[in-house]
Predict the 3D structure of the following.
Amino acid sequence: MTEPFNDFSRLCVHTMTTKPWTLEQAVDGYTRAGIPGITVWREHLAPLGAKKAAKLLRDAEMNVVSLCRGGFFVASGAQAREQAKGENRRAIEEAAELGAPVLVLVCGAAPEVDLPRARQQIFDAIHAIEPDAKAAGVRLAIEPLHPMYADSRSAINTLEQANNIVFALNSPMVGVAVDVYHCWWDPFLRSEISRAGKSIFAFHVCDWRTPTRDLLNDRGMPGDGCINIREIRGWVEQAGFRGFVEVEVFSDQYWGWDQEKLVERIKRAWKQHA
């Protein structure tokens, strides 16, 4: 049985969890709350730029767990696919500037591109940018998304599909991000987590609400829903993962809260359910 956390030393919060805050406000709020880890959303990074943001994070002595997100490789036109690779190379540069060891990839999809072609485009794009990641010292974490996003956000929908890319590329720079929101339903999740092993670069937690009122922005705080988060954490840790456990909650409800109170809610939920 996986034991609950007895401190916050492995707690990371994704800045989209506290979306109303600027990056400066998030760093200040997390630091005052004793949260040591942060994942930075690129839209929160943009107003400051990577160089100023890097200084802010260093001065606050925060652990930059990852930069989110790269990806969105899929397009019907070759020019758009090349532009996507260029944007991912910029994201790799930003991650390196921040000192983020991982760039999380939401791989993309398009309704006019059938799934086999989309998955091939994703493989080809990651293969193309892997040398840039290696040169920058930034690892690429493929995050499979729930199948409800297979038309528009990601054609990689199971951990098996993500693992297949990782094993085919056979690079220490390419691994996976396990997000319980997207993977909890998968009957092969435990075996695929074991298969991923040391290629698990990130672990994200939130909860699945019933009913889910919005397909993107109605995620629950750990404990709000039906996912056995602690059991899945146990599987991830058995596979060798010892990194930060990242709270990533896209929620219109929680974005409407006083964000200081939300941070305290995050800490309680993380200790009780993660």
Summary: The mean pLDDT is 98.
